[in-house]
Structures are given as C-alpha cells and as structure tokens.
C-alpha cells in the first residue's frame, strides 16, 4: 500500500473505533482487519501505528485543535497528528490527493486549521497537566494518591510505546533456545530483567507468524503479568484455581511452573474465552488444566470450598496500568466504572477466599494503578476475614526477583520497572484449630480477565 492508502486505512479504522465507543479499540481493529484480509501484515502494522499514535495523543490533539469550529473528524485529527509529529504541510496535502485509495483533498476549513499546526509540537507547557499527560481530569486525585510527586514522571512513562514481551514456555525449551529461534527469524530479543522466563522485543513484531510461537515455545505476555504468576509459586503437587482465567494467559504460565503436574481449574463466565483457551493449551503442550464455566446459581464453588492450594484472582479492573497498550481505555473509563469495579472486586475476593484451603494462598492481582482497587481493597478484605493474612515476606516465592520478595504485595509501573502497571498481593489462609463454616459461594457476578495478560 502507498503511504496515502495507509493513511486512508487508518482514518477508516479510527472511524470504526469512534462508532463503537464502549468497545476496546484492539477488538475493533482485529475485526476491521479480519474483514480486509487483503491488507498485508506490514500495512496492518503501519495503519495501527498511525491510529495508536492518535489515541495516545488524543487530549493533546484536541487541545491543539480547540479553536476549530465544528466537529473534529478522524480525517482532521489524523492529519493533525502527522503535522505535530514533524510532518510538513506539503506532504500532508500530498497524502490527501484524492487519487486512487487516497483520501479526498483537504477542504478549505481543514487546510486552514492544519496550516496553523505546522512546526508546532504535540506537547506544550501551556497545556493543563492532565491534558499534557493524557489522563482524565477526574482521576487526578486518585493518581496523586498513588504516585504523589512522581505523578508527572509516571504518567509521562505511560505515554510511551510499549515493548512486546514474550514468556518462554519451559515445557518446550529454554529461554536461550527461544532467543536463538527468534533470532533465526530476524527477531532479536533481550532477556527481561525481572521475569525468569521473559524475552523482550521492540515495538510491534510479527511474533505469531514465527515457528517459535506456532510450536508453543513462546507466548505473548507482559513481564508484569509473568511476575504475578511467579508470585503464586504454584508447584506440581498443588491443586490450583485460576478464578478469572479469561483466555488462559496466566493458566498457561501456571501449568509451566507446575511442570504439567498437579491440577489446574480455569474458570470464567465467558464461554467464548474459555473455548479460545483450548487452542493455546494444545499449542503449549499443557494437559493438567480443566476448564469450568461459571454461571449464575452455580454450586460448583460451594462443593469445592477450602480445597485449593492456590487461588489466583486476576480481578476485573480499570486497566489503568495498561494505558500504554490500550490508550483508548483512558477515554472510555468513567467514575461509575470505578465504583462498580470496586464493589465487584470485593465480592469476587470473598467468593474466591472460600475456595482456599487452610494454609493455602490467594493471589490477588490487577492491572490498575489505583489504590482503591489495590492496597485499599486488600485492607478492606482483611478486615472482613480474620482467617487471612498477608504472606510473611520470608515465604514469598523465590521465582520473584529479590527486590519484589521484600513484602507480600508489590506494584509495578512502566517508569520504574519497564512493565505495564500491575499490583499483586499474596494472602495466606491461616490454619486454625477451630472448625470454620464455609459460606454459600454461588456465582452471581461476572468474572473476567484481559486476555492480553
């Protein structure tokens, strides 16, 4: 495709994203490209890069176009993104040539609006902090509660382009072997600093087309997500529950740490996601996993109360820690979403806790930056359940790097750790002599996981 055709494709994709405001942009993009299989891999990446650059700079672009009367169209905002990224007005006009596969020529209104942006920068100190750092105004106090004086630096790091992290499947080979295999296909990967199984690539790369991926030697998984699994310390003799399994990303990693022994139950309320995990499990060579669909009124959990050595709760959350990958999530998140999520997380924690055996562990994790979803959620849970405690630091998993083993809960951020934003806490169910009565844990609430993690 020509540069003009790629830009036209990007504008069409941005239109599709705007027409489905509550749907994640990556889901819309996947559907968009499935319907246009004639678009090759390189062109797909180029089109996606244009669109994701626009989404990452959305508030700044709107601010730069604030004096324009009328609606700001996808055409206008894509062109503005190019200009504020260093492109010249002459070249932008050339991309809107009206020739085959190109967008129609710029209107006089568009031309005037864009001409004033030539030579300017996307970010400026004149912009309000929340605009310059691309976060919702209403989240300012919550983010300051988390980061304090580090807020500008942390949010600046959130504007960057994420790396592509892989988890090597030790059931199929070593990290060194996987790196060699990828290098043969012109994908040089570096070993991650925190995860013992991670490899890192720059930017968007065609990993799923490699033989290493097809053979199940590597899986796409952010390093932070890998560390959540490391914190679980699941072993071959354990019975493990992945309570919010989604498409099985963490389930696969748990099976690896258990060396394909023991027993894992992967639960979710979305049948399609659980079915999608089947292909991944087969490719990875995993055979110690049972899937279970949670439905309203389900008594499955009640019958298995207190029977799991490890229960992983990768809770549905705001996804604020994934804003580098999902910049559109900043635009979709509302205060009402946070209020509903905090209630849901507490209820899920209570239900999952009843499945942990005495002496067993529950690992609570989110990809959120917000204290109300993280440490405050754990504090509230421990007030409700005196039979749980944070795991003593000397018992934390040796799979974790030393700097994360110093306490039972940890947070990760792009600035400090070069990962997505993650929170994880390891809780232990205290062994008591008194016989405890398990509560009814019939499933009434949806449980989900971001399948990318």
From TrEMBL:
Keyword RNA-binding: yes
Keywords recorded for this protein, A-Z: Methyltransferase, RNA-binding, S-adenosyl-L-methionine, Transferase
Domain SAM-dependent MTase RsmB/NOP-type: 154-430
Active site as annotated: 367
CDD domains: AdoMet_MTases
Ligand binding (S-adenosyl-L-methionine): 268, 314
Family: Belongs to the class I-like SAM-binding methyltransferase superfamily. RsmB/NOP family.
Protein name: rRNA cytosine-C5-methylase
Species of provenance: Gluconobacter kondonii
